[in-house]
Amino acid sequence: MHLTVLENIVLFVLDIRLWTGRKKLRPEDLAANGVDPDKLPPGSLASLGSKRIIGNEALAPFAAIKREAEKILLAKGVRFLSGYAVPANEAQEVSDKLCLLRQRFEQAKAELLQSYDDEVRRWIAENPPAWAPVIRAALEPVSHVERALGFAYTPVTIDAPESLADSESLEAQAQGLFGQLCHEVRTAARAAFEQSYVGKSSVTRKALRPILAMREKLSGLVFLDPQVGAMIATIDATLDELPSSGPIEGRDLNMLAGLLSRELARMGLAAAEETEVPAEADEETLLPYPSGYPATAPPAAPLFWDF
Questions:
Q1: Which of 83, 134, 172, 207 has a Cα-to-Cα distance from 178 of 20 to 30 A?
Q2: Total domains, the chain
Q3: Rounded distance between C-alpha atoms, residue 76 and residue 80, angstroms
Q4: What angle do CA 58, 100, 20 make, to 5 degrees?
């Protein structure tokens, strides 16, 4: 059993429930507005979908808070089991941030419950009058909305029960943490490269933020595998070469592009996976270097993604 790994993580399980503000669209809803239900395609071919009974703006804060909670957990940890494995020494900071988010969620919930009737009336007014009866007939009581919305999180430590001899499943999951970390770093590296570097001959220091975020994540999980420490050293060596201020361009930009596309985007991949070209690959699989890459520079190996 990878006791060292499990002893160094806290599993955060999120339980955030969102209310969609939607109800199933029924044939009689269409009939009430002059649409013949008998002319609709059969259910095996198409479904009617749903109808919204409240404006999306009223519910947007809850989805945003959920995304922020997931972002906080992924900034420090990795997906594990049904939650997020966070370094034990980072758990308190993560818990404090989630606690603040829960307070924001509850405040937004209280405001929605208080303004629920006004929000419904506003939504009805924004839509054709013929649909007002359909919306009203589908309304949920405010008590239903109160139960449907919720924000909770549970931090737990993990170990296999001593009374159970077979703990291979948990051990396999623990061994997979490094692979999951590599996958998440590769995903972040690809996004950063595409968003901030492709086609650019110069970038601001803002383009360093995703690299610094990846470094912070790696530093907290360095106990997972020696390769993590080696990648941190590679990041530091590259960043140390950069000027302390001003735009990043020329050789410096090429170094950062290489860090993302040659190092971070391939973290954890076997050498064969890095160099073999899949038979079905096409030009769209490859990511170009920033514009202005020196023509005399050695050609980079084709970059392929494992997801």
A1: 207
A2: 2
A3: 13
A4: 25
Q: 142 and 22: one domain?
A: yes
> What's the whole-model pTM score?
0.77
Average pLDDT over residues 90-107: 97
Domain that holds residue 46: 3-156
Buried b (16+ CB within 10 A) or exposed e, 151-171: bebebeebebeeeeeeeeebb
- C-alpha torsion sign, points 53, 56, 58, 59: positive
Q: Is residue 290 part of a domain?
A: no
Burial of 213 (0-12, 13-18, 19+ CB in 10 A): middle
181 & 77 share domain = no
Residue 280 has pLDDT above 80, yes or no: no
| Same domain flag for 265 and 138 | no
Q: How many CA atoms lie within 13 A of 103 on its CB side?
A: 6
Residue 246 lies in a domain: yes
Q: Which of 174, 272, 274, 169 is nearest to 225 (CA)?
A: 174
Is 192 part of any domain? yes
pLDDT band at 160 (very low <50, low <70, confident <90, very high): low
Model confidence at 34, pLDDT cuts 50, 70, 90, reads low
In a domain, 294, yes or no: no
Q: Give the pLDDT confidence score for residue 22 in this predicted structure.
A: 86
Q: Residue 280 to residues 119, 186, 276, 284: CA-CA distances in angstroms?
A: 51, 21, 12, 11
The number of angstroms, rounded, from the C-alpha of 73 to the middle of its chain's C-alpha atoms is: 10
Backbone angles phi, psi at 11, to 5 degrees: -90, 120
Q: Are residues 210 and 78 in the same domain?
A: no
Same domain, 20 and 129: yes
pLDDT, average across residues 31-40: 56
